[in-house]
Please model this.
Amino acid sequence: MKLTTRSFSFAALVLLTAATGLSPIASAQAAQTERWLHVRVENQVAKGEMVRVNLPLSLAEKVLPAINKDRLHNGRITIHEAEMNGVNLRALLDALRTTRDGEFVTVQGTSGDVRVVKQAGYLLVHVRGNKDATNKRVEIRMPLTVVDALLSSGSNELDLVAALRALGAQGDTELVSVKDEKSTVRIWLDSKNTSE
Amino acid sequence: MLGKLMAGLAGGLALAGAYVVHEGAIRIQVDQQSAKGLHRHLLVPAALVPAAMMFVPEATLREAATRARPWLPAVRAATEGLARQPDCDLLEVRSAQEHVHVAKRGALLVVEVESLRETVYVSVPLRTINGVAHRLESWSPAS
Model:
């Protein structure tokens, strides 16, 4: 009889341990290596209005291939040239990837300046609105390894999962920053699970 | 004889208790701000969800499963992936009227909505969401 009671107690103890004890260890291991994509949008006009998103890249890598709807299949998005106003996005990105470092686009206008630069493994886009016009500032910093990864699948597809993996291999970096009088938008990558 | 029966019953209860603890609980709190506002606090063992699903009419379950079908694998992948993550705030939306907060806390997905009219708090074990998605997938026709 004692053996029966002990067996039940032991089984119950094992279940309780599994329920409460093991998950923090797995979580701690994941925390050490995880890369996080952060998005923060703040409204400057209505103080206190904001949106914050913190997304572990490994989670996005697992979820994206599981969505098979419309153009998204197995973590890849199908692009139709006909629907891109005649622009072959894949050819454009491929040309960008293979060309030498340099400044591709420079526009200096009355409403603002635009610069598109390939430099040290990054595609950089700077937009600055003139103070008289919008006073908007846009900075985009895209690692070219991510562009490579995007193009790594079929001819009419962009591989989003491969791009996420390439992004995960980057160090802490700010990808997008947009500032104007009304709002600020930041998209960045680091190893913290908070956006503070 | 009676002793054996009692020991068996105690062991069974211990196992059932361990199972309920293991599966966690679903907590739903709705508090309306007005003086005569609704205040509902529910704490349901998540272990009851599979049993409760058996009482849902088949047609309703099939329709829900068919509609949700494209997203169910993603829901399963998300819950499995989140379970391996440390506690984190996934989404926060704050406006003058509303505050929405989605977070992972332990083995739970927590959703909090605070508005001028009411406060809603829902916490569901990730394992339960995963289980429901699994079950719905088995009901829906393959795409």
Remarks:
- Chain A touches chain B through 43 residues (CB under 8 Å).
- The helical segments of chain A are 2-20, 23-33, 57-63, 89-98, 144-150, 160-168.
